[in-house]
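Example record used in the benchmark description.
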Amino acid sequence: MKNIAIITGGDSKEYDISLMSANTVYNNLDKEKFTPYIIEIRDNIWKIKIKDSYKIIEKEHLTLEVNNTKIEFKDVFMSLHGPPAENGELQILLERQKINYTCCNPEVSALTFNKYRCNQKLKKLGHDIAESYLYTREEKLKIDYITSKFNFPVIIKPNQAGSSNGISLINNKNSIIDAIETALQHDNQVIIEEYIKGTEVSCGILKIKEEIILLPITEIISENNFFDYDAKYNNKSQEITPARIAENQTQLIHQITKKIYQELNLRGLCRIDYIIKKNTPYIIEINTIPGLSEESIIPKQLKEAGYNLKEIFTICLEN
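Model output (structure tokens):
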């Protein structure tokens, strides 16, 4: 049987979410085909779980010896949200060791994790994107420029962070500085973005052999002003699958999702989030390592589509 390293953890605010995803993968991997081990990264220390204890494992050589038996990994199921996986750094290390992994390559991951750069790329490809401005910590804050460029409310968020960490929806000029400071806790670059009011939806996608599979769309209704961390993980939102949208909107979002998957050379299980305003789907972001916990969107979409996690996780590893 193949040894599978389920890599999780990380140093971002998504650490706990990563652990939940890793546990879902561990519990649902086909134990007749694979022997899974959870490898947890924190503070640049890699620990592997062997039964009920942890052992240090060297990241440059994913091998270790336990009871005179060598355990070696050539396949990784990526369950780490945020850096160093979603930005592509970890994939570079794995490729040096000729280790296979279930997510996008380093270049694609670096692009999609940089929300501003990714949105500019998508805009050039002809997709509908909210107007935005990128602010960097070192530059002088031009509040007058921001107020002249955007109508309130506006979204202020970290350029590179996940799980809606550090995002604010603000309604006036006086809130700009505090919202930027909140975002700067997560990244040195901040996006000030046009607020698009509409129906928020999310579409999962994967490839089975050479066929691209589009999953049922999920409609997201937040109790808060928008789908923030609190709404996502503290049961303050409804996630309705399939989404209550018109058939032509479903077809359009599926069409756009497939096109982006091909254009950006995405790989593995991905999720693209949208807001539909006046029948136009605006792309919010691309998730190349989407959450897989019981509360996450992708497992619910897979279930609605008639797939079980065991078969999908096998497909991810075989791909």
